[in-house]
Design a protein that fits this description.
Elements lengths: L8 H34 L3 H16 L2 H21 L11 H27 L2 H9 L4 H31 L11 H12 L2 H30 L8
Helix pairs in contact: 1-2, 1-4, 1-6, 1-7, 3-4, 4-6, 5-6, 6-8, 7-8
Amino acid sequence: MLINLHGYGWMLWEGVKVTIAVSVCGMLVAVIIGLIGAWGALSKSRLSNRLVVTYTTVIRGVPPLLLLLIVYYGTPTLIQNILERYGINIIINFTPFVAGFLSIGFILGAFATEVFRGAFLAVPRGQIEAGLACGMPRLLLLRRITLPQMWRFALPGLSNVWLVLLKATSLCAIIQLPELLRNSDIAARALKLPFTFYLAASLLYLAITTVSTFLTQRLEHWANRGFKRDF
C-alpha cells in the first residue's frame, strides 16, 4: 500500500481477516434464515406467513445498530433472567464475533428471504407440474428441479446481499470487535492520523468489494451456462 501506515499495517490486515470471517459466517446465517423465511412466505399456512411478515417488518423498522446492541448486551441478560426463574444460575456472554455475525446474519436474512422468495417464484411452473405428473415426491422434486433452478435466479440478489453484509460488518466496531474499521480507528487515534487510516480502510473495503463483485459475476456466469439470455 502506498499510504504510510507507520508500522500499523499489520493491524489493518488483521482487521481485514476478521471482517471477512464475520461476513462469511453472517452470510451463512442469512442464507439459512432466507431459505426458511421464503418457505414460510410461500407456505399455505397463515401462521407462517404472519411470522415472516412480522420478521421483515421488524428488520425494516429497527436500526441495525440497535439490533446489534440488543443481541450483544440484551440477549444474554434476558436468557439469564429466564433461567434464574427456574433456579438455574449461570453467566452467559456472547463474544463480539458471535454477536456480530449472528446480528448481521439475522438482519440480512430478511433481504435474503425476499431474494429466495422471488427465485422460487421464478422457477418455471411447467417444470414443477411435469415433475409432479411423473410421480416425483415433493422432496425429490425440490432437490432435483426447484432448488437447482432457484439458485440460478437467486445469485444476483444474493450477490447484493453479500456486498451489503460485508460493509455492515463495520457496525461491529461499536461492540469492540477488532474488525477493519475498529482497528483503523485505534491506529488513527494512536498516531493522530485519522485521514490516513480511514482512507486506508476505505481502500481496503473497496478492494474487498471489487474482488467480491468479480467472483460473484463469474459464479453467475457459471450458473447460467447453457441458458440463453434475452436482451
